[in-house]
Amino acid sequence: MDKSMLSYYKTIGKVQQAISRVDTLDEALKVGLQVILESTAADYAIMWYRDPKAGDKLHPYYWICPLDVSSVSYAPGIGAVGQAYSKNEAVTIINFHESPEPITKKDMEGLDIGSLVCVPFSNETAQIGCIEFIKDGANGYYSEEDADMCQLLATMTELAINESALPPAEWKDKKVILSVKDIKREFVNGEIITKVLKGVNFDVFEGEFLTLLGESGCGKSTVLNIIGGMDTATSGSFSFMGNDMSHLNTDQLTKYRRDNIGFVFQSYNLMPNLTAKQNLDLIAELVDDPMDPLEALDLVKMRDKKDNYPSQLSGGQQQRISIARALVKKPRLIMADEPTAALDYTTSIEVLQAFEKIVESGTTLIMVTHNEEITRMSHRVIRFRDGRLYEVTVNHNPVRATELIW
Question: What is the pairing mode between strands 192-205 and 176-189?
């Protein structure tokens, strides 16, 4: 047996072993695609599914790549994705740059695609969509053997998933309220340049709970500081409600933060000589149309502590007061940076329940965390690795805060 065939069988074994441990389509896709990327020449992978209730378009289901493709869709027959789905056969393009026809949408131009393979994907009940494997142009092109491996492993993943599993509920178009484009951030200390962000792209949708996940130092908090107007990018841009915010001066950024953003940090930052309500009153005086401070305290179940000073409150209670303080501004966005990191499990759940109510009210929430379990209650999860987006997961069935365990 030659080495290439031996590699095939070993990788198939890895995929089958990984998928055998899970029960759902979500889990099967994640572990299957992760193993395939680890075992082949592919750099990125995207699973597309067709939604008959949304004009039959193919939408992204799960993906591992440095581009947020949440807003991208393909009609059957359009692009390599749509062609693979319509023909029910794999579409392979070894050299993307020399392809004689446009095979991808403008929305995908953030990726330097060298090669791609799109493989149709179905179960015994219905045709689901297709899996797209991409080779980054900076890393060269697929060989024919690479393309064959991608097709083979996609088929193995298809055969191994739960046969009754189908894609999620109807796709609903969402309004983008904040968009990040190729943001980079470098810090200079003498002759030492530290590249914290290396080109980050993603969108934030109105009313969603978005989690930015990753280990310490991966860049997630730096991104939050930039889009929150507390830091500036070295290059790249971000827009809010369609307006470019990248070149605002200090006064303009202050107005942007004051009028649109509510912040919740790991440290509570409450004024120690003011009561809970007075901390909220102080913020209410800074904005034109504030929420009633007592109403904000009601939302986080802290009205009975309105006359208490921070020193008279537990850590979890102080954090809920800080959430209420953010709500007083009636912000379009709430940004929370590791809001439960200093809290025990029981207190963390109480704080997360407060965030749950905020999202249910229609406010958009972006939360930075390193706690994988918290991501189960968010709508989307963006995983950072070494200053870049690594993986995006759309969570079609978020759980309640009380269902989290760690």
Answer: antiparallel
Nearest to 222 by CA among 179, 267, 260, 184: 184
Chain centre to alpha carbon of residue 224: 13
Contact 120, 155 (CB under 8 A): no
Count of H helices and E strands in the chain?
10, 15
Residue 255 has pLDDT above 50, yes or no: yes
Average pLDDT over residues 279-301: 91
Distance CA 211, CA 379 (A): 8
Euclidean distance between the first and the last CA atom of the chain, given in angstroms as a whole number:
46
- pLDDT tens across 339-373, in order? 998 889 998 999 899 899 889 988 999 999 999 99
Angle between helices 315-328 and 276-284 (to 10 degrees): 20
Amino acid at 336: A
Alpha carbon distance 136, 100 (integer Å) = 19
Instruction: Return d(Cα 386, Cα 381) in angstroms, integer.
Output: 16
Percentages (nearest 5) of helix, strand, coil residues in the chain: 35, 25, 35
The single residue listed with the structure tokens 């060989």 is: 143
What global pTM score does this model have?
0.80
* Beta strand segments in 110-218, E: 113-122, 127-136, 176-189, 192-205, 209-213
CA distances from 18 to 14, 15, 28, 33, 186 (A): 6, 5, 8, 10, 38
CB contact set of 49 (below 8 Å; sequence gap of 6+): 58, 59, 61, 128, 129, 167, 168
Where do the domains of the chain lie, and which CATH numbers do they carry? 3-160 (3.30.450.40), 176-403 (3.40.50.300)
Neighbours of 43 (CB within 10 A): 21
> Residue 202 and residue 212: Cα distance in Å, rounded?
11
DSSP-derived secondary structure for 225-291: HHHTTSS--SEEEEEETTEE-TT--HHHHHHHHHHHEEEE-SS----TTS-HHHHHHHHHTTSSSPP
The Cα 283–Cα 287 span in angstroms is 7
Q: Give CA separation, 354 vs 64, 71, 275, 326, 395, in Å.
A: 31, 29, 20, 12, 20
